[in-house]
Structures are given as C-alpha cells and as structure tokens.
C-alpha cells in the first residue's frame, strides 16, 4: 500500500516513527556538524592570517595553502546547509510526501465520535504525540543556531585562554587589564550553561513525544526562567565590555564613566524587572494583556513578551551604538590631532632650513 492512500491517523503514525528516528539519530549529528561549522568559521580566518604572515619569508606559496582552508570552509557550510534543508523537509513530511499538519490531525480526531472508546483513546494519544514532537522541534531549531555560535565562541575562547595563559606567565598584569578576559570567561561560561540547559529542553520533549514520561510543569518553568536569566545577564556583561572599552578610549573621563555607569545600571535594572515579570507570568500561565506583545514569535519568552523586555533590549542596543560612536569619535580625534602635530613638526623642520 502506498503512503498517499493512508488515512490521516495512519499518516500521523508513520510520521511519528520517522520523527522518533530523526530525534535519536539525525538530530545529534546535525548538532555536531553545527558545532564543527562554528569552529571552522572562527579558525579559518585566523589560520589564513597566520599562514599569510609566517609563509611570507619562505618559499612555500601562500595562496594555495590559504585557498585550501577557505574551500574546506565553503564545503562545510554547503554540507551543513543541505543537511539543514533535508532535516526541515523531514519535519514537514516532504520526504515521505505526507504534508500533514496538526490542525488537520486534530480535526479528524475531534470529529471521530462514532468510534469506540479504545479507538478514541488511541487517536488522542496519536494527536498528543504529534503535538509533543512539534514542541520538541520548536526547541531544537534554535538549538542548531546556538550550537554553531557555541562552536564559534569555543574556538575564540580557546585562543584567548591560550594567549592569556602565556601572558600571565611571562608578565604580571594589573587587575584593570584583566577586566575583559574575566568578563569574556564569565560570558562564555554563561553561554555554555545556556546551551546545556537548552539541550534537555529538546531531549525531554522528544522523549515525552516518543512515549516517555510526562514533563512536570515546574521543570518546564525552571528551564524557561533559567534560560532567561542566563541570556539576560550575558547581555548585561556584553554591554559592560563595550562601555568599559569606551571609558578606556576616553581615558576614564568623568562624563564617560558617569554615562557608562548610568546606562549599565539602567540595563541591569530593566533586565531584572523583565525576569521578575516573565517569571510571574509563566507561573500564572499567562501574561498581563497590557504588557504582552501579541506579535512576539519567541518560543521561549525573553525580551519580546513584555514592554519592559523590549525597553531593556532597545536600551542595550542604544548603549552599544552610543559607546561605539563615542569611541570612534575619540579615536578619530586623536588621529587627527596626531597628524596635525606631525605636519607642524615637519613644517618647522623645513622652515629651519
């Protein structure tokens, strides 16, 4: 019997078997490939620079060696993109030509009133499993992007840790100079924890859809709040690094320090308030109609669910933009004055002759 002539519930059962196999075999491989992709995206430009500098004084041609790296990166990106496309077609049922949606399945189940009790119970179990797999895939798709970013961050963090280790062994650094390495290490730790918490958010939903135990509501609440806390404080630390860099460029001038402190305290306060509001809304099962964003498409509510979250996100972006502009202005001003002093010096030398 060919698949297109199956009824709706039979199609759902076929897709359930396909989803179970995909969650256990294809999904881990796709996450591994995403991590490797992130590592290659970080190391290929660095390796190209190292080869370009070190092979400059040798007889080894630089262009072919660097071209091999970039060709490998392009091949990995293409393979990852094709794997992701195949994965999405599997979730949509296109690989088996079964474009079944949950609404179609729910319509059949709710209208099957002439069946016996055992059949109705089986239909409800099929619909529940199909819905839970949908929740699992909603949690998995952002995890693919996060895994690629984690690979990129892990590669850069390994380089920073290696350089920082040798510098700390060779020379003693001040506590002020250790601010960025310390914050970067803390940010990477929070990112790693965010990924570790996001992974069981997918695996538990997939296991539940495959007939595993139900997920307690308190556990789902704890995961959602933990992810929100990690993301919020990671954003605050990222802003602190940008503002710290701006203060250094401005030689820690009082207006710059006051501006940085004000923005950082405001961002921190808004993030904490957003965490409290969202946690209360999740505990109650809904948000207040006055604060919810009806067009928010976040699967795990972070900033788009409340007006406080939107304010925190926009202030964070504005602080980054202002700090970058102020740092650029100071840098350009210093370069302009240095060039002017150089011109005056050369003019005086020429005039002396």
Features:
353 residues; mainly alpha; 8 helices; 0% strand; disordered C terminus
Descriptive overview:
With 353 residues, this protein is mainly alpha-helical. The protein is flat. Helix 4 packs antiparallel against helix 5 (179-209) and helix 5 (179-209) runs antiparallel to helix 6. 80% of the residues lie in helices and 0% in strands. The chain is built from 8 helices and no strands. Residues 287-293 and 346-353 have low confidence and may be disordered.
Please write out the topology.
Layout: H1 8-54, H2 62-91, H3 102-110, H4 117-170, H5 179-209, H6 217-249, H7 254-284, H8 307-352
Entry summary:
By secondary structure, the chain is mostly helical. Helix content is 80%, strand content 0%.
Q: Low-confidence stretches at least 5 residues in length (pLDDT < 50)?
A: 287-293, 346-353
Strand content: under 5%
Distance between the termini: 100 Å
Judging from the principal axes of the Cα atoms, what is the shape? Answer: flat
**How many helical stretches?**
8
What string gives the helices and strands in order? HHHHHHHH
Q: Say how many strands there are.
A: 0
* Average pLDDT level: 78
Largest β-sheet summary? none
Rg, alpha carbons: 27 Å
Structural class estimated from helices and strands: mainly alpha
Approximate helicity band = over 70%
